[in-house]
Amino acid sequence: MKATIPKRPWVKEWHVTGFTIFLLLVLAVLLSAQATQVGQDFSMDQFVDLWLKMAHPDWPYLSQIMTPLAQTVQMAIVGTLLGGLLAIPFAFLAAANIIRNAALRWFIRLVMNLIRSIPQMLLAALFVAVVGIGTLSGVGALAVFSFGMMFKLLYEAIETVDSGPMEAMRAAGGKRGAMIVFAIFPQILNQYLSFFLYTLELNVRASAVLGYLGAGGIGLYLNTTLDTFRYDRTAVVILAILVVIVLVDTLSNQLREALS
Amino acid sequence: MAEKGSVALKDVSKIYPNGVVGLENINLNIQRGEFVMIVGLSGSGKSTLLRAINRLHDVTAGQILIDGQDITQASGDKLHKIRRSAAMIFQNYNLVKTASVYRNVMSGRVGYYPAWRAALGLFTKEDQALVATNLARVNLLDKYYVKARDLSGGQQQRVGIARALMQEPSVILADEPVSGLDPKTTKLVMNDLKRLNEEDGMTIILNVHSIGLALKYASRIVGLKAGRIIYDKPIEEVDKRDFKEIYREAGDSAAEEAE
Q1: Do B115 and A175 touch (CB under 8 A)?
Q2: What are the residues facing B64 on neighbouring strands?
Q3: Chain-centroid distance, C-alpha B96
Q4: CB contacts, 8 Å: B79 with chain A
Q5: Which of B84, B93, B118 lies nearest to residue A172, judging by beta carbons?
Q6: ipTM > 0.90 for the complex
Q7: Is the Cβ pair B94, A177 closer than 8 Å?
Q8: Which end of chain B is less enclosed by CB atoms within 10 A, N or C?
Q9: A26, burial (CB in 10 Å: exposed 0-12, middle 13-18, buried 19+)
Q10: CATH numeric code, B1-85+173-259
Q11: CB A210 within 8 A of CB A86
């Protein structure tokens, strides 16, 4: 007996629906590009000029940017540390298996969601306006960002722990605080460290451009070299940032793998 | 003041918010050194009863006295203290799987430490020695640094016993401690409990499915059905045929197991 593949309508056979949607999307991209005037004043000469200059990096400049480069990483570390530590108590206050008062939980989550909805660059701009130009602004912006991020990751981790040990600690006559230390801490410690490293990765990247807004670090040098058309120096700055980010990412990935 | 290791339930009832009757008019007097096994079908109220003794949930009416102290009315420090004297062993072991055996056993002392000392790991020399002693009692001293998740089920339950001993309890409550274990490890765990009962005079109250185990280890058997005590006899007076009544609804297989 010969097996025949079941027939289906030609609309499905030729994927008419999917293909139509694809064409409409392409059209939408073209129309929006036209409406926003993307690529209207693109100059090929300038583009080539930039690349030619950047192809000959001003290597001696490297010695001048070592300090701000280190500062960038330091800002990221301090910011992550401050935000990450501050997130711990708030994460516990927002976790349903720790705090039974739903009103308190929702209030904390609402406030934290508001904090987290502020973009990082806006935070930096705010800090520069309030605290003034310098690394303190950068640290502040990164700390607030880390605070929101670590809070969310951590309270979700707390809510998904195995509830058995907590029950055992309750039966053993533990007080709330000691119960958390014995039953919850060991369950979330590795995850916490992993979240910390991940946030640090993001912060090193963000920290590199914060200087653009005057919040300290290497970003300032990126800005100055571009403004003075010293693209040979810009190349050095970009390459240096790249090396640092790759290093931090690799290290963080290795550590996180070891943790899991 | 009642003797240490005594448990008394007076007219205890538990009705769940949805109207289901968990326990009805339970009266039970358990003396120091008894090995009480509670038998009954699933849903007969065995777990509800055991958890009520440690107040893992509240009862609707009645009194529960541990060492003569009423746990149903206690709060704050008093509740913590009463709970310390009745240690609990669980069906799912309830260990922190990612923590070492040492840390799990030490957690039995949770009622003796404020949070900050526990967080910094500032345990007294005596308590550290106690961990070693209790691990040796369940023959697991060589697993001191091993993570709990790397142990077999039987080993995890014995770590659970060592943890319970850290409370220096007068009563041990065991909620189906061997239902997930094979016959060989069941024997190991039951023998550990039997030793505590005989050597230390600890009162043990244990839920089981298996009538065979109850007949072998218990000094007294209590039968529960639909939240009521329908059977309560010391082992000398127990007749295997009695179990037909307790397990009647289970059909023939359970009743036959008893014979």
Answers
A1: yes
A2: B9
A3: 19
A4: 173
A5: B84
A6: no
A7: no
A8: N
A9: exposed
A10: 3.40.50.300
A11: no
Task: Please state the CATH superfamily assignment of the domain spanning residues A60-259 in this structure.
Answer: MetI-like (1.10.3720.10)
User: Tell me: the pLDDT tens digits for B217-242?
Assistant: 999 999 998 899 988 989 888 887 78
Nearest residue on chain B to A174, alpha-carbon basis: B111
Task: Find, in chain A, the residue whose alpha carbon is nearest to that of B96.
Answer: A165
Distance (Å) from the alpha carbon of B259 to chain A's nearest alpha carbon: 36
Rounded to two decimals, the pTM is 0.80
Indicate the residue of B95, B115, B167 with minimum beta-carbon distance to A172: B167
Residue-wise pLDDT tens digits, A114-157: 999 998 889 988 999 998 888 899 999 999 999 999 999 999 99
Q: Does B97 touch chain A (CB under 8 A)?
A: yes
Tell me where in chain B the CATH 3.40.50.300 domain(s) lie: 1-85+173-259
* From A181, A189, A190, residue closest to B118, measured CB to CB: A181
**Which member of B79, B83, B119 has the closest CB to residue A172?**
B83
Confidence of residue B259 (pLDDT cuts 50, 70, 90): very low
Write out pLDDT tens, residues A239-257: 999 999 999 999 998 998 8
Q: How far apart are CA B143 and CA B127, in angstroms?
A: 18
Answer yes or no: do B92 and A168 touch at CB < 8 A: no
**Subunit contact B115:A180, Cβ cutoff 8 A:** yes
Does B56 sit within 8 Å of A167, measured CB to CB? yes
